[in-house]
Amino acid sequence: MKRMFSQYPDVVSINELMDMLKIGKNTAYSLLREEKIKNIKIGKQYRIPKRYIIEYLNCG
Asked: To which H or E segment does residue 32 belong?
């Protein structure tokens, strides 16, 4: 998995998350709001450490 996402930074934005998982905006926001993918919210913006995306894929 780590090799698959090597072109992405260690902390990604919502748009990068959408690209990584090939999902739409509504699905991405749902995953974050429901805390299925751990994340950090700074103001109104989500930042998602790449390791949490990999963790979600391994456990999901």
From this structure: helix 25-33
pTM, rounded to two decimals: 0.89
Burial of residue 11 (number of CB atoms within 10 Å: 0-12, 13-18, 19+): middle
Is residue 18 within a helix (H) or strand (E), and if so which, with residue range? helix 14-21
Are 21 and 5 in contact by the 8 Å Cβ rule? The answer is no
d(CA 30, CA 59): 17
Q: What is the mean pLDDT of each run of 10 residues along the chain (60 residues)?
A: 85 98 98 97 96 91
Give the span between the Cα atoms of 4 and 41, in whole angstroms.
Answer: 25
Structure tokens at 49: 């450490």
Q: Please give the pLDDT value at position 52.
A: 96
